[in-house]
TrEMBL record:
InterPro entries: HTH_HxlR (IPR002577), WH-like_DNA-bd_sf (IPR036388), WH_DNA-bd_sf (IPR036390)
Name listed for the protein in its UniProt record: Helix-turn-helix transcriptional regulator
SUPFAM superfamilies assigned: Winged helix' DNA-binding domain
PANTHER family given in the database record: TRANSCRIPTIONAL REGULATOR, TRANSCRIPTIONAL REGULATOR, MARR FAMILY
Domain annotation HTH hxlR-type: ranges: 8-106
Highest taxon of the lineage: Bacteria
GO molecular function: DNA binding
Pfam families: HxlR
Keywords: DNA-binding, Transcription, Transcription regulation
Length: 135
């Protein structure tokens, strides 16, 4: 596995779990083994190709185990490995953070527009475009 040049542990984790789907796939696998089509149904918006690539990547780094059963038709299941289960606290924190985000009131859209206009006015008055910026 390629290591980060900086040696940053967060960067290492993000290399494995970054992207739109990987941590979400891990969260669905916390419930136990799932078949490919179950995951595809559970994760709305993921394409078959992306699901295949992300499951393969998670398998390559040892977070997911792929088991093929000798049946007709062939049955394939994906489940978290012991290393993959170490992500349980991460998923729980992400879930709690998502619930917190959903519960807080959204800022009024006109507030953001007024702030943007104020910054433009301050830049113009200072005759220095870009001197003031919004965070």
């Amino acid at each position: 596995m390629k290591r980060s040049a900086t040696g940053c542990s967060v960067e290492e984790a993000m290399r494995l779990l970054g992207g739109r789907w990987r941590l979400l796939l891990v969260s669905y696998l916390l419930d136990g083994p799932k078949r490919f089509n179950d995951l595809r149904r559970d994760v709305p918006g993921i394409s078959q190709r992306m699901l295949t690539l992300d499951l393969r990547a998670l398998e390559q780094v040892g977070l997911v185990q792929r088991t093929v059963f000798a049946e007709v038709p062939v049955k394939v299941e994906y489940q978290l490995t012991e290393d993959g289960q170490r992500l349980i606290p991460v998923v729980e924190v992400m879930r709690d953070f998502g619930l917190w985000l959903k519960s807080r009131p959204e800022p009024a859209p006109e507030t953001a527009q007024v702030e943007a206009e104020q910054v433009e006015t301050m830049d113009r008055l200072a005759d220095r475009p870009g001197k003031f910026s919004m965070l």
